[in-house]
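Example record for the data management plan.
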Amino acid sequence: KDEMSDWKTYRNEEYGFEVKYPIKASANEIQGNPIWGFYDKDLELSVQIYVYENVSNDKTLESLIENEDGVGNPIYIANYSKNDYQEININGIRAFKYINHLNSDKDSKKIGATTLFLKEKYYYQIVTGSQYAPEFINEREKKYNIFIQTFKFIK
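Corresponding structural encoding:
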């Protein structure tokens, strides 16, 4: 059975996307950033979506990430995450997925993930991590990976 067949859909007309999330999770639309998030109590999985205006007009993901001075660019990828990332494809969208580690050692405990992608005048960040369940392991990582693959632009 398709694990997502009973998932709910969140749709955001302003930023032109939709995403599915677990049926048992509690979800909130929020003013400001993050704009939306959900919490899955069974897995102790918390996920938030941030949307930023691409004011520096970066054309590539690489230039977004390299621009670390924060001037006109609120994105921040911790240095320790930069050691452990992969380029992924989310429904035709090129994205970078970073695994957040407890410290700069790539072999240290995984504590969450950040997925980053760009579309026209916005860039999007999907973040997970939980102070209550600090280790980002197995079921939680699997559910996060399924979740990010449900993201799609609707316009």
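Summary line stored alongside the record: The longest strand covers residues 110-119.
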